[in-house]
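pinging the channel bc i need a second pair of eyes. not urgent but kinda urgent?? the chain im working w is below, pasted from the shared doc
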Amino acid sequence: MNQDLKDWMDSAAKILGALGFFVAAIGYRSQQKIKRAEWHKSLYEKFFEDPTYKEVRVWLDYGTLQEKLNASDPQLKIENEEKFTDFLNFFEFIGGLYARRQLTFDQINDLFDYYLIKIKMDANCKKWIQEYSFEKLNKVLAKMK
């Protein structure tokens, strides 16, 4: 085989290799976008459609959080504190996904800005977050305007 043919085949192989890498990178990026969209959908369903956090959302919406956390019935107070802790743990999980770059701040803000602002502005929430070390949630809240 002459040298020109070998050089041409070598160049063609390099071009095909680069093209294959480019196609694989586009496919990978596309799959990542799909996975992030699935995460987004899953988080939306968990928070807004599943009844788990609905009661605490209502407490924040109507300003009754303090009343619920200071219920006179000791058993009810414990139950309410557990519900509120679960609510904050959801956002701590979101903060963990953010810290690991699984979610961007914009994605979090798109879905949860209303409740993150409510949490950030509520004195009881701030106290709870500090007292029980919701550090990842605190980092997300620090980015909120």
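so The CA atoms of residues 60 and 118 lie 7 Å apart. and The mean pLDDT is 91. — does that match what u expected or am i reading it wrong
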